[in-house]
Amino acid sequence: MMRFTLLAFVGVLSAAPEEVALPEDIGRQVENGGHPEQAASFDLIERWNAGRKKLEDHAGFSWTAGYYSAALGVLGGNGVPTGASGDLTVQGIWAPAHRWTDNPTELRFRLRHRHAYFGTPVSALSGEIGALWGVIDGYSNSGFEIPDFFLRHQFEAIGLELRYGQMTIDSQFGGHQLASSKSYYLNQAFASNPAVAFPRFGAGFTAVQRFDNGFSIGLGTTTVQGTQNGNQVDLEFGSDDLFHALQFAYEFEDRQELRHRLILLGWHSDSVEDAAQPEGQGVQLTYERAINDEGGQFFSTLSWSEGGAAPVDYLLTAGFGRPCRDDDFFGLAAGIGRGSGSSGSLQMVLEGFYRRQFGEHFQVTPDLQLLIGEDLTTGPGVRVIAGLRATGRF
After folding, report:
1. Where does residue 115 fall: left (phi above 0), alpha (psi -120 to 50 degrees), or beta otherwise?
2. How far is Cα 343 from Cα 345, in angstroms, rounded to an integer?
3. pTM above 0.70?
4. Do the beta carbons of residue 244 and residue 265 sit within 8 Å?
5. Minimal CA–CA distance to 224: which of 209, 237, 212, 210?
6. Shortest CA distance to 345 belongs to which of 322, 371, 368, 309?
7. Which of 144, 133, 165, 170 is nearest to 286 (CA)?
8. d(Cα 185, Cα 175) in Å, to the nearest integer?
9. Closest by alpha carbon to 226, among 148, 279, 312, 305?
10. How far is it, in rounded angstroms, from Cα 299 to Cα 192?
11. For a pLDDT cut of 70, what percent of the chain falls above it?
12. 23-31 vs 36-59: helix axis angle to the nearest 10?
């Protein structure tokens, strides 16, 4: 844990203030006894941001980077299993024709390096305690990966968006506004959906057609095994094992001009013999809505699957999140699911988090989960999972 604490401490030191001082303000601070090293750091941040803006204006290239770390400890049963992991992610967009058209073709990419601290990744805790699905989404020890490397074509006049390449298909299908383990909930029941057998990533094609009345239709196909053959970017469709998705969505506003959204997702996944993954299919219904005009959000999902491709065959979740103070965020959610195995075990999870913002670039998020259910290993069917997540973005 010492290394994890050190990373968080370094992130605090490197976080930029909410308001960057102007050069003349920095000069007055130094003259009045301020710290010259602080003035130099502010000037460096300004130069860094100006350089990125210049690159975007002239070359159509924009990018961001972030370091995400998480540590969890499980209370209850025998012992206190712990894990800690980090994730360094760089993502960006290159639109070389941005000067000649308002809707240029974009190359979108995301590179990441996932690693464990002290040998045990956070993602391994689910198997240690007998959880039906992940107590955290991501944060594994998979090393260097390129989950996204695709072309995006946006035809605004007809409301059509096309993507082709290597991608994480769940970024377009079946999600909700709070579905992110890096920013909101950690547990897979809320951060993704263990009742849908989404591939980790793979070569694929998606098309989303949006209409003026709020309806949209999405189609997607991607390889199931992703890049398990060792290639980081594999754009060939030589595999016969595919994941297919069909989605219908409807978005509307109520009398208070608050946004509502309904999503119906149907999916099918071929079997993968090398990974011992059976064939499966299912349906997911998602409802989300804004609860105020300040960023508050409510969501609920109802999912069914069969065939065993997904670890859960029934899942029901509901939760909300809302801003607190100036830039903080609070969330609370509950879910219950049944395993797709022969035992048909039931488990329930309750999760709450409070994300504290420090300056413009750094966040610290305490997290608490209560897991109740059958087939939890060694001891009573109750586990308390305490977590801490630290994030630095620039």
Report:
1. beta
2. 5
3. yes
4. no
5. 237
6. 371
7. 170
8. 13
9. 148
10. 13
11. 84
12. 170
Distances (CA, A) of 257 to 98, 216, 296, 320: 33, 20, 14, 19
Q: Which amino acid is at 314?
A: Y
Closest CA relative to residue 107, chosen from 117, 120, 92, 119: 92
In the chain, where does DSSP find H-type helix? 2-14, 23-31, 36-59, 125-129, 188-191
How far, rounded to the nearest angstrom, does the alpha carbon of residue 316 sit from its chain's CA centroid? Answer: 20
Q: 229-278, pLDDT tens digit by residue?
A: 445 565 555 567 899 999 999 999 998 899 999 999 999 999 877 767 88
Residues 264-277 as b/e (b if ≥16 CB within 10 A, e otherwise) read ebebbbbebeeeeb
CA dist list (Å): 79 to 2, 126, 313, 368: 20, 15, 30, 18
Q: What is the pLDDT of residues 63-83, one digit of tens each?
A: 999 999 999 999 887 778 899
Tokens of 367: 């997290």
Distance from C-alpha of 162 to C-alpha of 34, rounded to nearest angstrom: 53
Contact 161, 154 (CB under 8 A): yes
Token pair in block for residue 1: 């844990």
**Three-class DSSP category at 170:** helix
DSSP state, residue 46: H
Interior angle at CA 222, CA 307 and CA 243, nearest 5: 10
Q: In one letter, which amino acid is 120?
A: T
Quick one: the chain helix, strand, coil %, rounded to 5? 15, 45, 35
